[in-house]
Amino acid sequence: VHLSELGSTTTSxxxxxxxxxxxxxxxxxxxxxxxxxxxxxxxxxxxxxxxxLEVKVLKQSELHKKIIEEMKxxxxxxxxxxxxxxxxxxEEMKxxxxxxxxxxKELKHVETSLRSSRHLLSTEEKTNSESIDWDSDSLPQARxxxxxxxxxxE
Length: 154
What we know:
Layout: H1 3-6, H2 11-131, H3 139-153
Helix pairs in contact: 2-3
């Protein structure tokens, strides 16, 4: 209420205007209080939501860090495993090459023994066939010897 308006009014009108202004002020204060409470309530709810989001983000961040650490560990483990596998492979190849050399030596030895045995058998056959008297009674014995030589060859 402006003072210039009060000049032409009576005291009862002034009191009414003051009362109206006071009531209007009370309504405004209640409205302000109500609005302030609503704003505070909304702000509190938003703060709770933001805190929950913050917790989720922190958990995700920690999880992300753990994943990165695990990936590093797995990478190191894979590298280490690859090196071990390569080392074992080379060791096994050396062993296999050694075995191959031994097998080849043994094979040559067996081949030499086989040639020697063939030569002996051939010589023995010649000796046996020359010593058989085909006209004598020892013919059954010659058959036994020939059968024995044949079985030995097989």
